[in-house]
Amino acid sequence: MRKLKLQMNMALGDKWDDEMTNLSLDNLVNVDNILLGRNTAEDFIPYWDNVAKNPKDDFYTLGKLLSVSPRLFSPISLKPANGKMQPSPGAISQKK
Known about the structure:
96 residues; 5 strands; 3 helices; alpha+beta
C-alpha cells in the first residue's frame, strides 16, 4: 500500500532556515507525486520551476526536486449549490 504524506509549511516573516529546507528534502525522498490544490498549483509550479533554473538560488536543490517530481492537481473549484459546497466538473490533472 502506498503512503500519503502531508506537509504543511508556514514561515514567520521571511524566516525559512536550513532545517526547513532539509525537512522538505527528506520528505521528497521516494515521492511518487505531489498533490496540490488548484490555487496552490497556480503559484507553486511556476515558482519552483524558476528556482530550479537558477543554480545560484538558495533553494536550487529543493527547486530541482520539486520541479522534476510529478505533480497532480485538481482543476476543481467548489461552488455553492443550495447552500452547500459542491465540486464543479473536473478531474485530477498531471503536470510534469
